[in-house]
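Database export, one record per block. Field names are fixed; values are copied verbatim from the stored entry.
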Amino acid sequence: MGWDFTKGATKEDIVREASAGAIETKLIGNCLWSIRNGTDGKYICLALIENQRGFGYGYKTMDESMHPYYYSCPLKFLDAVPAANLEWREGVKRYWVRNGAAVSINERS
């Protein structure tokens, strides 16, 4: 999926748009993490948010199964959603260990 930019959009506008229909969301920097319902149940979604100078903000979405190379997903999201990519989840846990969270990186979600 490609980027979707909106002329004149603010970051807040894009967060609101990308959050629509989500069960839960958490914005960490320019990563908007969300839990969503799909045809096969709940899944974790990442909306990367970016500003095109002189145009406006936009976003690009991807889900856990795509192994996004971003790992700031809230740990509680891993507990709330069945695993679609164990390797990616290990990366998320390592990220939070490096950032001071108490988590077992050997634990499989």
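Remark 1: Strands lie at 4-5, 24-28, 31-38, 41-52, 56-63.
Remark 2: Residues 52 and 66 are 24 Å apart (CA to CA).
End of record.
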